[in-house]
Amino acid sequence: MPRHIRTIPQPHEAVEIVDDQDRPLGVMPLAEARRQALFHRTVLVLVYDGAGRVFLQKRARTKALYPGRWDLSASGPVLAGESREDAALRGLRRELGIGGAGLTRLAQAPARPETGYGFTTLFCAGACSGPLLPDPAEIEDGVFVDRDELDAMAASFRDMLTPALVSFWEQDLVFRPGRPGTGRGGTDGAESADRGQDEDEMPDTDWPGTPDTDWPDPDDAP
After folding, report:
1. 123 with 83: CB under 8 angstroms?
2. Which tens digit of pLDDT belongs to each residue from 124-134?
3. What pTM, to 2 d.p., does this model score?
């Protein structure tokens, strides 16, 4: 179960550059990796409340990618020398002010322009026992939503959601049996059974490419 904690963001985040097969090549600052449209690694984390609703964050207007859009609970790059799990825990601390007692890997998605060329891994952190403490530098707003509310958002306001949120919603990875929010059981203990799942066994996801979506150019990112 996530617990509350605070962290201080690092000013010059360096990420590991990888090839199109996610094999390491070198290290450089995240902003430069995005500017050059180079492959790297990122994470997304799902956090729920006691009623099983998932927390959605509205990205700050200062974000390089998808400013002002609604996104999954927490996100961030995998820094050089950092595991994906550690990156997910750091994202929880940095953006929401909480620490996760355990994470479950749910899925991974290939690097695409829609992700800023990041190979993305989706985690679940379970239910939060107390209030979240969003960092205003990272998150403009936030809300807990249930399955019906998220369905309505995706149906009527898709252009206000990030491609990652749309993609994982389309594949029913946000609310599933055995996790909070499904109405069919789901506890932190049930999630722990999936820990240690091999990446090769996780489902590979794809990103939506609706013609009416104007994807930002990573070269424009600061």
Report:
1. no
2. 999 988 889 99
3. 0.77
